[in-house]
Amino acid sequence: MSSDVLEKRYRMLLRAYPADYRRERADELIDTLIGDEPTTRRWPSAREAASLVRGGLRVYGGGTAPRPTAVLFWQGIHLGALAVLALGVLIGLDDIVEAFQFGGLSDPLTVLRNQGIHEIALIAALVALVAGRARTAAVLAVTAAVVPTVISQYLFLNGLPQWWAPVVATPLIVLGLRRPADVPPAPRANAVLVTAGILALHLIPAGGLRMADAGPRIVVAVMVVAGIAAFLWVATADQRLLIAVVPTLLLGTLHQLDNSGLTGELLRRPDALPSLVVAVLMAVVAVVSTRQRQRTRA
Amino acid sequence: MGSASRPALREPSYFVLAALLGGPLHGYAVIKRVKELSDGRVTLAAGSLYSVIDRLLGEGLVTADGEEIVNGRARRYYRLTDEGCLVLTEEADRLAQAARVVMDRLPRRVQSQASARHPSTARIRPA
Fold first, then answer.
1. A246-256 pLDDT, tens per residue?
2. How far is B121 from chain A (nearest CA, A)?
3. CA spacing 20 to 30 A to B22: which of A157, A245, A261, B98?
4. Phi and psi (nearest 5°) for B67?
5. CA A252, CA A277: separation in Å to the nearest integer?
6. Cross-chain CB nearest to A28 (options B51, B58, B75)
7. Torsion sign across C-alpha atoms B29, B32, B36, B41
8. Residues facing residue B68 across a β-bridge
């Protein structure tokens, strides 16, 4: 009986693997996990659970693909485009809510002209990309960068990060159109999950590290460390995330560069240049090490 | 296919290949055999084992060797390919040569101290 419960729980954990892989291997994995010896365990060990989740992430990251580097690179840039558009949408929504909170209700048409059109175009590009319509997404991303700016230069002149989102995403989407036929697209549900994870990373209030009070600063420091640790735990198994996070950090850097120029602020802000440099280095290391591993005997 | 240009096997891959030297094994048996061969140093979790097996399958060093149904579940067996056997032999030879470089130069006193301290678990890392 306990073995049935354990098997059920292992099967839940196996959902970390892509559906194709599960179809091929789930029974075999369960057989290996349960083993031959009688067990009274009802719960998988933390070690087995972590190993299964990381195993699933490795498969998603191209670990079993004939060309892992190609999967890492092409799916990484697709996820990067998704993440940067989603971040732009999130920041844009936050700013629109803020605009309405501070007097925008008296002149909603101005808010719509200044921010709403851009937000709608950005959401449309994001939806098209999630739906796998890359060409449409590219056109919509260009539209999001150009048309709202022609109508109102509010976002552009204020150098707001959401204005940069389609600018950063467009070349990635266009580059993604050249994905080789033997590299599969990232599964949609997985792409949405990866995007949500990267957004969660950006929602950590890292700016709080610069607060004067020690108490809140410690809380923020714990959140930052936990967030980075969780990200690295996932991203060292599914290295597409190391590529996908780069454009989102480029957004913060471009925003700072636009607003403050080459000042110390660019180096001090946690979501700007320092994180971008680290992220780029990690992405390069991921691609190079995957290439080497591809050449290495197992 | 000169061995000089072939990068070293990683430790889990080395032990998985070594476990299959005795004949085809299924996943759970591979885990047990690897633990036994490495004196308990290499304990593979199932997720890690299948990451290794997937890589070895991709490299053509192991191959699936039949299935049987046990407790209503498919149990797949794996065996070494000729290429896998060759790679494992070359790796073992390389490790033995690397070990000899040190052992031949160690003073006898240090050798006996080391073997007294760790009679069977002296670790030789793949380069």
1. 999 888 888 87
2. 24
3. B98
4. -135, 155
5. 12
6. B75
7. positive
8. B75
CATH of residue B28: 1.10.10.10
* Secondary structure letter of residue B71 according to DSSP: T
Q: For residue B127, tell me if it sits in a domain.
A: no
Distance CA A195, CA A201 (A): 10
d(CA A12, CA A14): 5
For residue range B50-61, list pLDDT tens digits in order: 999 999 998 899
Average pLDDT score over residue span A66-79: 93
Residue B112 identity (one-letter amino acid): S
Q: A30-54: per-residue pLDDT in tens?
A: 999 988 667 788 899 999 999 999 9
Place of tokens 């699936």: B64
- Which of B46, B52, B71 is the closest to A32 by Cβ? B46
Contact criterion met (CB < 8 Å) for B71 and A25 = no
Residue B2 DSSP class:
-
Residue B18 domain flag:
yes
Q: Among all chains, which residue has been given the structure tokens 């709202």?
A: A148
Residue B24's alpha-carbon distances to A181, A285, B9, B29, B65, in angstroms, are 36, 37, 20, 10, 7
Query: pLDDT value at position B27?
Result: 94
What is the rounded CA–CA span in Å between residue A1 and residue A23?
A: 24
Interface test with B, best of A4, A28, A238 (most B CBs within 10 A): A28
Which chain B positions have a beta carbon within 8 Å of A47's beta carbon? 45
Measured in whole angstroms, the distance separating CA A95 from the mean position of its chain's CA atoms is 21
Contact B26 A32 (CB under 8 A): yes
Query: Which one-letter DSSP state was computed for residue A296?
Result: S
Range of the domain at B33: 9-117
User: Residue B2: inside a domain, yes or no?
Assistant: no
d(CA A32, CA A125): 44
Domain count of the fold of chain B: 1
**Side chain identity, residue A71:** V
Pick from B46, B47, B52: which is nearest to A298 by CB? B52
How many Å separate Cα A247 from the centre of its chain?
A: 9
B118 to chain A, closest Cα gap in Å = 27
- Asked whether residue B124 is assigned to any structural domain, the reply reads no
How is residue A54 written in tokens? 């990381």
In chain B, the residue whose alpha carbon lies closest to the alpha carbon of A293 is: B7
Q: Can you tell me the distance from the alpha carbon of B73 to that of A289, in angstroms, rounded to the nearest whole number?
A: 36
